[in-house]
Design goal:
The chain has about 210 residues and is an alpha/beta fold. The protein is built from seven helices and ten strands. Helix 3 (about 75-85) links the parallel strand 5 and strand 6. The relative contact order is 0.16.
């Protein structure tokens, strides 16, 4: 599934590699990769394949899941698709509590002690997931894992998830994707070294001018 998911993301341009003209993230980091997995939603066949992969991943890694919770906003559609396929309750968690009404941060019903799997579209550093984990734990839920479509596999993400004490699994990852991209002609094989050096330390821009 890792290679199949990578091919889908590349084919629909949900993931785009541009090492010769780096993207700039909101954090200021210059990156050779841009990811917007929401584009998958516009392609029914590919959307179904990613949904089925997500369902299989959750069933394999987190078979005790009782509730699926999406991250707002990008994780909501895939959480809904997976939960519907698995016939499980679904909700989502806002980045902040609403300023009006009941001032909810958690939308949907989750009971103390329920085993929850969080669905995310992308894992970069894990910072956005921490907000969701904290909210759900604050409500008494048992967060048993995080399932995402893709991860950059950055060192910070491994560190942050370890500190949270939460397991995470993904359909595909950066290492697999750049290999598939070279194999399918999306990029030239000679740039693989630059792409790997970026992942090792995204804050070090030396990779940009390396050959």
């Amino acid at each position: 599934m890792e290679k199949k998911a990578a091919e889908i993301l590349l084919n629909v341009k949900a993931v785009f590699l541009r090492p010769e003209e780096p993207f700039v993230w909101a954090s200021g980091i210059k990156s050779p990769i841009y990811c917007d997995n929401r584009l998958v939603l516009s392609y029914p066949e590919e959307r179904s394949a990613i949904r089925d992969g997500m369902v299989a991943l959750i069933k394999k890694e987190y078979p005790d899941a009782e509730v699926i919770m999406g991250t707002a906003t990008a994780g909501i559609p895939m959480a809904a698709l997976a939960a519907d396929s698995m016939n499980l309750p679904m909700g989502y968690v806002r980045s902040d509590a609403k300023k009006h009404g009941k001032q909810n941060q958690i939308e949907g019903k989750v009971l103390p002690g329920q085993k929850v799997v969080i669905v995310e579209d992308l894992i970069s550093t894990g910072g956005s997931v921490k907000t969701v984990v904290d909210a759900l734990r604050g409500a008494g839920a048992d967060v048993i894992g995080v399932a995402a479509i893709f991860t950059y596999g950055l060192p910070d993400s491994e560190k942050n998830f370890a500190e949270m004490g939460v397991d995470f699994r993904t359909l595909s990852n950066y290492d697999v994707l750049i290999g598939v991209a070279a194999e399918k002609g999306y990029i030239k094989e000679e740039v693989l070294g630059k792409l790997r050096r970026w992942k090792a330390d995204p804050k070090d821009e030396a990779w940009i001018n390396e050959k």
